[in-house]
Amino acid sequence: MARKFKDLSEREILALAISLEEEDGRVYADFAEGLRETYPATAQLFDNMGAEESEHRASLFETYRTRFGEHIPLIRREDVQGFIRRRPMWLTRPLKISDARKQAELMEMETRQFYRKAIGQVTDASIRKLLGDLEEIERKHQVAAEAMSENMGASVKKTEEEAQRRLFVLQIVQPGLAGLMDGSVSTLAPVFAAAFATKSSHDAFLVGLAASIGAGISMAFAEALSDDGSMTGRGRPMLRGAVTGLMTAAGGIGHTLPFLLSNFHVAFIAAVIIVALELATIAWIRNRYMDTPLLSAAFQVVVGGVLVFAVGIWIGSS
Q1: pTM of the predicted structure, to 2 decimals
Q2: For residue 73, is the peptide bond before it cis, meaning its omega torsion is within 30 degrees of 0?
């Protein structure tokens, strides 16, 4: 059962402080390790913060040894009421820089509050002075953590923004684009084949809806099971799968919805217009995020789309 903070002795408060500084230092080391490859500047900041936490631990340990001897009782944050339970986000890979910065801010605020409360509970002058000094240092750490991104130079900030953009492209844009291309292009043949074979908007809509949802489910599982993202940096499998599946379904349903119109010819013309808009959107995304020249992207997408569209019409008319 967790102890109340007010029931802790001076010896136990010092032991808890040592444990807190050790844990914080290890968390910052994990943050630095998780961010080093993509965000080296922020990783260095966490390295520095971790080194300072080690110095704090050493100061606390020296004071404890002088006052109480060599043995330090095992007392951790989870053994005392009032501490927030931490989710082990520092073990996540790839680690989000925004999560690491926010967690650092919360950690410094919590540690500062601990020292402020501890000062009012100890009577030994040397211990009170040490805790007061550490509380002031933690206050500065809290300010630094809150302004971590602002403390970087313009060139470093630009580099890290580019790294964030690369991760966004790798983890969101690429799987989403793959899904949108598959949904927009692969469902053209069954939708327009059904439309020309039956001359019925209702039948074409049902075929398009089934093909879109089926393709979305298939692509979601294929993407999620392709790799766990730990080595490639492509992010969480579930998120990638969801993005790919939703965009696949959206790509197919886009040119399926016009067949809700009862007039077949109007529905067909509307569907063709939407197909053109879908292909233009894909070409723009490839140009915007994949650095593919716009004309080249448009040519590649249009050729593929026209071929599949023609196959659908040919099969439906035969």
Answers
A1: 0.52
A2: no
In tens, the pLDDT along 242-282 reads: 888 898 898 888 888 999 988 888 988 898 888 888 888 88
Rounded Cα gap, residues 216 and 213, in angstroms: 5
CA distance 282 to 140: 48
Taking each helix axis from N to C end, the angle separating 40-68 and 10-35, rounded to the nearest 10 degrees, works out to 160
- Domains, the chain, with CATH or none: 5-152 (1.20.1260.10), 156-317 (no CATH)
Alpha-helical runs (H) found in the chain: 10-35, 40-68, 97-119, 125-146, 154-168, 174-186, 188-198, 201-224, 237-254, 264-289, 294-317
Cα(215)–Cα(7) distance, rounded to whole angstroms?
A: 61
Beta bridge partners of 3: 80
Residue 244: which residues within 8 A CB-CB, separation 6 or more? Answer: 175, 176, 178, 179, 219, 220, 222, 223, 224
CA 134 to CA 130: how far, in whole Å? 6
The token duo for 285 is 């995304």
Residues 315, 292 contacting (CB under 8 angstroms): no
